[in-house]
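Standup notes, protein team

Yesterday: finished cleaning the Cannabis sativa set.
Today: Neprosin PEP catalytic domain-containing protein structure.
Blockers: none.

Input for Neprosin PEP catalytic domain-containing protein:
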Amino acid sequence: YHFIFLPFSYFSIFNIKSFDIDMGMREFFMVAIVLCTLLCYCESRKQPAILSRDEILEIENQLERLNKASIKAIKTQFGDIYDCINFYDQPAFDHPLLKNHKYDFQMRPSSRPKSIVREGNPPKNAEQQALVYTSDPTKKYNGGGTNASFYTLYNVADSQYTFGRMKLQNGLDIIKVGWGVNPSVYGDNRTRTFIYFQAGELSCFNTVCPGFVLVNPKPMIEMTLRETHPGTLPIWEMEISIYRDPITGNWWVDLGTNYDQIGYWPSSIFSGGLKDLATYIDWGGETYSPLGQIGPPMGSGLLLKQDTRYDAYCRQLTTINEAHIQEVAKNTKISSIDIDFYLVKDLGFHGDFGHIMIYGGPGPR
């Protein structure tokens, strides 16, 4: 058996040139988060609700899958509780296609990518997006990356969510990685890291359902991020990389300044699309609100000021081509479903920021 426990580490700070579109270039600190902790799963309290029989059965099945012996429990400064369990007891291996799946801790992906230095008037509800996306239908991708700023957001109702994230897709298969506020999953309004996948009829956040294999004790998903607000310095950001192993076809997630490998989705769980390469990548914001509710904020919660001290952004937009070479994202377009309340701008290439986009808004009020 393998089990993992490490103490928490600290955020790291580094300097790069800031980018102020209206006022020129300035110097200020940027901070990249190094995610840390152990191989673990979060428990959160939910509001009482009336559930159908099918929903109750699904909850019972999930509880059975998650009822694994805890080796150690840790409570963070934010009140989150994490249970450390044996490696092969994690929910990923409850997936029927992963019953005989093995992972060698001495092995990592066979190689990493080689680096190079709508308009409309929809109802004010449901899913909203403000994105920069790849637009060439003939291209295929082995992954991509970004450095995404994150913010503390309020006024997100229990049935809503708001994200800043990167997404890969081929057909119905989808991978998302980023940060967000999701009260229905966590029971609070804290900003956290998250992962999401859709493979055929199976889809879920983090490790709620089988599929994602955690391998690294240092970074973690579902981590509560520090409070940060627009207009204050330093600006905090998280580095994201998603890439496909050229030998196994597994989709890996790296986070943090050192691009620590968190884990992977085995290629065998996907229904067809992401068994192969991705055909589409986007970066930016996404919100959801049920019909009849006022939509939540996105990004920094402000309308765009074209100043990275105030606007949420994704910089260093990159794609990984079919030869596993990392490139600056090219031939991109923008998409915003509700242009009255959620805005997006593709700013192109700007020095240390690389290819950068800004997005966000307060939502309908």
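Follow-up from PR in the comments: The first strand starts at residue 12 and ends at 20.
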